[in-house]
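REQUEST FORM: STRUCTURE PREDICTION
Request ID: SP-0412
Submitted by: Lab K.M.
Chain count: 1
Length (residues): 220
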Amino acid sequence: MADDVQEFIRVHNIKLPALIGHSMYDFSAAEEFLSTEIPGRGAKVAMTVALRSPKSLRALVSVDNAPIDANLPSDFRKYLDGMREIEAAEVKKQAEADQILRKYEDALPIRQFLMTNLVKAPHSGSLRLRIPIKTLMSSLNNMADFPFKSSDEARYKGPTLFVRGTRSHYVADDVLPVIGQFFPKFTVRDMDCGHWVISEQPEAFLQGKMGFHINLILLC
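STATUS: Completed
RESULT:
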């Protein structure tokens, strides 16, 4: 996925973009707010691009993830089970997909977040996951790994913002020194939410305090 982002930058001849990444989301909500920035498909993808090619980026924003190997919570497998049921049911409406996902997730904002990954199949019009479920299932054990194990391998010295949910475990205080090794010019800002920062606090993230800090770092 980092290869895809770097290829996108190359093909479109984008000079010194700022890269934003959260979870495995394409960050479409941020495109309206930060129209000149590139949405990264995942915080670890964005961090990987920055470390691979540090002189190619203007700034980096990592939303609720850290440059370490981690274990995925059981929720991820549960969500994929829900997506598999949606595909098997061949539903064609978001409301029908949401009805199925209710069995796997109670929170509407998170269900809405998950459904952004659904697209219509070209011929049948049924909803399916953008990425084949079998591919995701087979990669779950390694999906939360980070390719760089030491800052001796690579370092990004540009302005970097880490946004973390205070009710999430992905960016704990004890990993801040590791973040500093890879990204020495980093800043941390906390939000009162879980891992799904944009879904849980969209207005606060884009327009409030987080929006201010993001604008600040992207203008550096």
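NOTES: The two ends are 26 Å apart (CA to CA).
Reviewed by: T.R.
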